[in-house]
């Protein structure tokens, strides 16, 4: 029997910015603890900023300190910033993909000025407000913070290996790293690419996840996550040859979005128990 284990765990404190790889993580109802708790928004209208329009966000480091009481930010060419997090306080209306998310807690002028300088556009940094309650969608909707639409993104080393084998066969591009796909949990142990698509429910550590939907991709995988610059055409060019999803208008997919159905603790190396294969 194939033994599937947790290869890597990553959370992203600020939506669109660099992730933090950890050896263990508490999984809450909204995903890995501290994941996408903060979001950068347009200072004028509160619309979220992302790598789709501001690829430089990829190279912005964000570290949670003191169990969430402080946040440290860093970016090449800009001085580092550390500040105390405001769990509540002045609020502003924010939106994502044109949908109103209600109020979020503004993190003050210092953080706003820092991000405005880094991104070259007037911005504010906000945090989820106390009592924030947002539903996902799909087979198991679940709850989430400022992620696009689902709590946990799962990929596998087999899926990346399959993609990179296809890229290598073209002979004109380098393989891409897993960070292009900004996963929360990377699985290993099964050699079948995209097996994570077909897992409807799994126990990971002491947490339990349930399938929501395949992870539909935009242009973010074209961004080099270390430099914050677009570096296409891979992996989108090759994904377009075999990962189109007719039910989503022939958009591309890589990985699976999951909801949290039982909170718990996950560690790198933990075995993963698949309870029910999708469609089985």
Descriptors for this entry?
single chain; 280 residues; mainly beta; 7-stranded mixed β-barrel; 4-stranded antiparallel sheet; 3 helices; 10% helix; globular
How many whole angstroms does the radius of gyration measure? 18 Å
Q: Average pLDDT value?
A: 96
- Flag low-confidence runs: none
Beta content comes to 35-45%
Count of strand segments: 21
Give the helix tally. 3
Classify the helix fraction into a percent range. Answer: 10-25%
Largest sheet: 7 strands, mixed, barrel
Distance between the termini: 17 Å
- SSE order, as H and E? EEEEEEEEEEHEEHEEEEEHEEEE
- Biggest sheet, spatial arrangement of strands: 1-13-12-19-15-14-21
Detailed description of the structure:
The chain has 280 residues and is mainly β. Helices cover 10% and strands 41% of the residues. The chain is built from three helices and 21 strands. It has helices at 109-119, 157-170, 236-239; strands at residues 4-11, 20-22, 24-28, 31-32, 38-42, 61-65, 70-75, 78-84, 91-96, 99-106, 123-127, 152-156, 185-188, 199-204, 207-217, 223-224, 229-230, 244-245, 251-262, 264-267, 271-277. Strands 1-13-12-19-15-14-21 form a seven-stranded mixed barrel. The chain has a four-stranded antiparallel β-sheet with strand order 5-11-10-9. A hairpin with a 2-residue loop joins strand 7 and strand 8. It starts with a strand and ends with a strand.
């Amino acid at each position: 029997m194939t033994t599937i284990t947790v290869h890597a765990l990553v959370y992203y404190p600020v939506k669109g910015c660099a992730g933090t790889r950890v050896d263990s993580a508490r999984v809450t109802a909204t995903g890995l603890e501290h994941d996408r708790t903060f979001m950068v928004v347009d200072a004028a209208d509160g619309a979220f900023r992302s790598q789709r329009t501001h690829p430089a966000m990829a190279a912005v480091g964000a570290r949670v300190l003191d169990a969430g009481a402080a946040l440290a930010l860093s970016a090449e060419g800009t001085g580092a910033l550390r500040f105390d997090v405001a769990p509540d306080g002045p609020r502003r209306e924010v939106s994502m993909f044109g949908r109103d998310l209600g109020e979020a807690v503004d993190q003050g002028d210092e953080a706003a000025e820092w991000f405005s300088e880094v991104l070259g556009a007037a911005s504010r940094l906000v945090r989820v407000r106390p009592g924030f309650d947002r539903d996902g969608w799909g087979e198991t909707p679940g709850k989430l913070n400022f992620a696009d639409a689902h709590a946990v993104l799962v990929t596998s080393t087999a899926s990346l290996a399959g993609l990179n084998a296809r890229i290598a066969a073209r002979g004109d591009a380098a393989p891409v790293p897993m960070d292009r796909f900004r996963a929360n949990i990377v699985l290993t142990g099964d050699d079948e690419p995209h097996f994570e698509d077909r897992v409807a429910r799994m126990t990971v550590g002491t947490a339990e996840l349930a399938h929501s939907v395949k992870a539909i991709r935009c242009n973010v995988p074209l961004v080099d996550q270390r430099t914050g610059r677009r570096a296409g055409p891979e992996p989108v060019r090759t994904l377009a040859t075999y990962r189109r999803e007719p039910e989503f208008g022939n958009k591309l997919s890589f990985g699976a979005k999951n909801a949290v159905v039982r909170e718990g603790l996950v560690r790198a190396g933990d075995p993963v128990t698949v309870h029910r294969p999708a469609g089985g």
